[in-house]
From TrEMBL, chains A, B:
Assembly notes: Homodimer.
InterPro entries, sorted: Calcineurin-like_PHP (IPR004843), Metallo-depent_PP-like (IPR029052), PAP14/16/28/29 (IPR011230)
Protein name as catalogued: Calcineurin-like phosphoesterase domain-containing protein
Signal peptide bounds: 1-27
SUPFAM superfamilies assigned: Metallo-dependent phosphatases
Length: 383, 383
């Protein structure tokens, strides 16, 4: 595990823990993310667990002979195996974490769904999908429950945004290697957004939700702030640190990708991409900001591709959960992203050099497929 | 002219004028817009004057025999005739007010371009196009010059928005008839936005500018504030007061309109709609806000249609200026909007009942064409 503190501030906080437990608990949650001594940072994306009541909740779309023994516990087992196999530095849950309409107790479903992440002691982050609030717990209630769980870095909303739509908009900074000249810089920026559930004006705009101006404005200001810090001394960089954005509902721009320019499959029924029926401009906002190199969505369980548009990789993770629609014979899967730093000539690690991804299938060997480079410093700037 | 004050506050300010001239001057500019005793409010839209140096600046795209005597002064004459014929309550200039690259002195060009409005004593408002800043005066400089001119209600930017992109984002409220139960309510809301000039990230996104998240967030908050006031007592209304939005560059959504569902013509070359090459979501933001019934753009001189999409009329004004590209034989034109209040059973005027529009051509009789109802209270809510 490469999540380490290291600053004097942190040592002070640890000492204070002996006296003040609440601060200790807060410090534990806020422990900064950081690249490890090996110069890499790995993120496991888990999309659409659709967790409900555990053992009594049946699977969907598995072979008939699997039904008798298949439940939410298969989702749990897959998550445990993925964590064990990949040993990620961060686990990101991109919504529909629970299928709340089938959940007897949403809080318990959330606890059970995230249990493997919690017990792994690996930091994790979550955003909401369109099914998380389909019980007594509202979207705000679900997010408030999540942020209290152990080892999560999730936030209900950023403290610096006085007004923002949705719940679960925040960012995380990943520092350079401890002891390197980048140790006090965020060399990788992670953005988490609430893409909503359904249209707030269904009589005019049908269908799914979208990322609102308040959220885009917050993203834009955050991106600018991070870019100012990254391009300032010491180790002033010319280009912004790469960013990755995680949210549930795909953008309408994914419709312009096809198998000639993506890796993976697009086999979701209907129109193939279940975005909002309107464009709310977040793709334009990200391109303008200039730092986001890849976007990771869930929502469409049967799509698992990555394709590049105007300099940004748009990626699905494929469906993870067993109590979620899927295809019998088409394995549940998860996406892994590995970000590697540049080895400096004088030794030590520098800024981000490359961002790679692959998926793993829930089969006997957790088969890795579709390995690809999403971004590399040498090819930066090509649309 | 139906722009009257009427409140005690206003009487006080007028008295203070005798003592403090600066406040008097400010009060003159800030005199609130209001429906007149006839229950109507008329707006003249002037798109793309493209003013430069006046008499020495030649016309474009007129018949060869007209060239010798045709100049910016034809634009001035057309504006004077329009003001005389329509006697509007407000004149709105939707950008490319000057064609600054052909202007010897941008400030003088602005003064001359707006001169007929200034001397008419009718309040006027302006936003920027993509050509207004093509001289020594920046976009900020042009807007700062405009707001100092007489009788304008233009603002550089709203005071309540701490951060906003562009110059010339503001709103105006039009009060109900003095003495009616709506006299202290804004029954018609006007939004003015800076749609930018060109892409700020041309290597990734080519072409024209767009309305940014900061502006959309301001619009959204302003719309919410106005709706709260309108639906509050006294005379608490169920629906928001109708809004009209004015900005230069058309939205990409106009591409989905065609002659089967619009009134007017679409004869701009190339792709027919010179919007930004990306969607920045402002159409979605307006539909979500729920109050804007019509949008008025310029930019494409050869388009003059209005077409309805998802409950919002999207309108061009057609080209107005003679030092702007056009078509010889296709008259320069302007759009008029007339908003009428509902006559109450007990007498007096109520809320807005209908929004009508027509255009006038710069021919001998200022021929009115394409009269149509853009919105009426009875048909509200139909997409």
């Amino acid at each position: 595990m490469k999540v380490v503190g290291g600053s004097n501030f942190f040592v002070g906080v640890v000492l204070l823990c002996l006296i003040l437990f609440p601060i200790c608990s807060l410090a534990e949650k806020k422990k900064p993310l950081r690249f490890g001594k090996g110069g890499s940072f790995k993120i496991l994306q888990v999309a659409d667990m659709h967790y409900a009541d555990g053992k009594t909740t049946p699977c969907e779309n598995v072979f008939p002979e699997q039904m008798a023994t298949c439940s939410d516990l298969n989702t749990t087992a897959f998550l445990e195996r993925m964590i064990h196999a990949e040993k990620p530095d961060l686990i990101v849950f991109t919504g529909d974490n629970i299928y709340a309409s089938d959940s007897t107790d949403a809080a318990k479903s959330l606890d059970a769904a995230f249990a493997p992440a919690i017990s792994s002691n690996i930091p994790w982050a979550a955003v909401l999908g369109n099914h998380d609030q389909e019980s007594a717990l509202s979207r705000e209630g679900v997010m408030k429950h999540i942020v209290k769980l152990n080892n999560t870095l999730s936030l209900v909303n950023p403290v610096e945004a006085r007004v923002i739509d949705g719940f679960g908009n925040y960012n995380l900074e990943v520092g350079g290697v401890e002891g390197s000249s980048f140790e006090n810089k965020s060399v990788l920026n992670l953005y988490f957004l609430d893409s909503g559930d359904y249209s707030t004006v269904p009589s005019m705009i049908p269908g799914y939700g979208w990322i609102k101006p308040s959220q885009q404005f917050w993203f834009e200001r955050t991106s600018k702030r991070l870019q100012r810090a990254y391009t300032a001394k010491p180790e002033a960089q010319k280009e912004p640190a790469p960013g990755l954005a995680y949210f549930h509902i795909p953008l309408p721009e994914l419709k312009s990708l096809d198998k000639t320019n993506f890796t993976g499959v697009k086999q979701e029924g209907g129109i193939g991409i279940s975005s909002a029926s309107v464009n709310s401009g977040f793709f334009t906002t990200m391109v303008s900001a200039g730092d986001v190199k890849a976007v990771f969505n869930g929502h469409d369980h049967l799509n698992d591709f990555c394709g590049k548009l105007t300099g940004i990789q748009l990626c699905y993770a494929g469906g993870f959960g067993y109590h979620a629609y899927g295809l019998a014979g088409w394995a549940r899967r998860a996406r892994v992203v590995e970000v590697n730093l540049k080895k400096m000539e004088k030794g030590g690690w520098g800024a981000v050099n490359s961002i790679k991804t692959w998926k793993r299938l829930d089969d006997q060997h957790l088969t890795a497929i579709d390995s690809q480079v999403l971004w590399s410093k040498s090819s930066a700037g090509t649309p």
